[in-house]
Structure formats: C-alpha cells, structure tokens
C-alpha cells in the first residue's frame, strides 16, 4: 500500500478533523487525570468516523506515547509489587482480547464495547464508597479483565486499590506495558 492510498482512507472533512481532534484531546485530559480512560472517552465519538478496527490500534499507539511520557515524572510513585502482580495477568488478558478481536464479528465487538462503556459509567456513578484496598488475589481477575478489555477496546485500567498518586502512576505504567504487549 503506498502512502497516497493510505492517506486516502483518512480523508475527512475539516469539521470531522475538528471533532476527532477534540475527542482525542478530551480523552488525553482524562488520561492525564486518571492514568487511563482514553478509549472510554474517545472511542464512542471516533466510531462515528471510522471502524473499531482502526480506532483500537490508533488509541493503543496514542496511549503508549502518553504512558511513556508519564514514565519519568511518575516512576517514583509506581507500586512495583502491584505492577509485578498485574503484568502476567494482563499478558494473559491481552492474549484473550486479541483472540476475541480476531474471531468476533465487528457488530458484536461494537455491542460489547457499548456494554463495557455503559457498565463502567453506571459503576462509576453508582458506587460512591470504594474499598481502599482489596486482597492481592484480586490482581488476577483485575489484571486479566483489564488486559482483555485493553486488547479489545484500547482501555482496560482495572486496579485493586486507589491512593491517588500511586494508583495513577501504577495504572499508567500498566497501560504502557499492556500496550507494548
């Protein structure tokens, strides 16, 4: 495929580029605050302009760059034991997510993405008091599910505890490693 044909598939009107740019900018404001969430914000808007099969790799690349940019300033806040518990489970989850991504029809993937975003939104609005820390055993399902959703939709981001700085730094580095997988 030559460069002109590749660029031709991205021929959007100027207003489309504006909406896409604003969606991505808003998504990365959320990423800067929370350490994850770009797909939850950008993907529903980007779906108006491009297929999910193009959105996921785009957001994975952008998440990798953003997480890499957070590496140096936040490296002291990362909880290495938590990251080491999560990474193997995230690798398993990423493998499952890629298998699902390659074998499920795009309509089903869109439905699953909508359900994922809706479930997360309802959870965020409904649950006011979150436990400060769950058992270390929760790293297995959280890492696996986070890795699966990360590979499927470009956003996983499940953690088992929530002190703001270590959680955001660890989650951001988890995104970096999961995107690299």
Structural topology:
Layout: H1 3-8, H2 14-34, H3 38-46, H4 52-74, H5 80-103, H6 106-126, H7 139-153, H8 164-180
Helix pairs in contact: 2-3, 3-4, 4-7, 4-8, 5-7, 5-8
Compact overview of the structure:
By secondary structure, the protein is mainly alpha-helical.
What is the first-to-last residue Cα distance?
A: 26 Å
- Overall strand count: 0
**How many structurally independent domains?**
1
Radius of gyration, taken over Cα atoms and rounded to an integer in Å: 17 Å
Overall average residue pLDDT: 76
- In helices, the fraction of residues equals over 70%
Oligomer: single chain
- The tally of helices reads 8
Order of helices and strands: HHHHHHHH
Q: Uncertain regions: pLDDT < 50 for 5+ in a row?
A: none
Characterize the structure shown.
The model has no long low-confidence stretch (mean pLDDT 76). With 181 residues, the chain is an all-alpha fold. It has helices at residues 3-8, 14-34, 38-46, 52-74, 80-103, 106-126, 139-153, 164-180. It contains 8 helices and no strands. It has one domain.
């Amino acid at each position: 495929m030559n460069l002109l044909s590749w660029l031709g598939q991205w021929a959007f009107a100027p207003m489309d580029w504006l909406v896409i740019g604003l969606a991505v900018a808003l998504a990365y404001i959320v990423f800067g605050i929370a350490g994850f969430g770009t797909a939850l914000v950008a993907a529903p808007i980007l779906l108006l302009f491009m297929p999910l099969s193009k959105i996921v790799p785009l957001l994975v690349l952008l998440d990798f760059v953003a997480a890499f940019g957070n590496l140096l300033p936040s490296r002291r806040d990362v909880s290495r034991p938590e990251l080491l518990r999560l990474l193997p489970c995230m690798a398993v989850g990423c493998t499952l997510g890629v298998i699902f991504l390659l074998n499920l029809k795009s309509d089903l993937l869109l439905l699953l993405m909508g359900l994922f975003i809706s479930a997360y939104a309802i959870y965020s609005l409904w649950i006011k008091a979150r436990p400060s820390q769950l058992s270390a055993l929760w790293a297995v399902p959280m890492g696996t599910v986070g890795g699966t959703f990360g590979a499927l939709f470009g956003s996983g981001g499940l953690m088992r505890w929530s002190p703001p700085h270590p959680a955001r730094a660890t989650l951001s580095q988890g995104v970096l490693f999961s995107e690299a997988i």
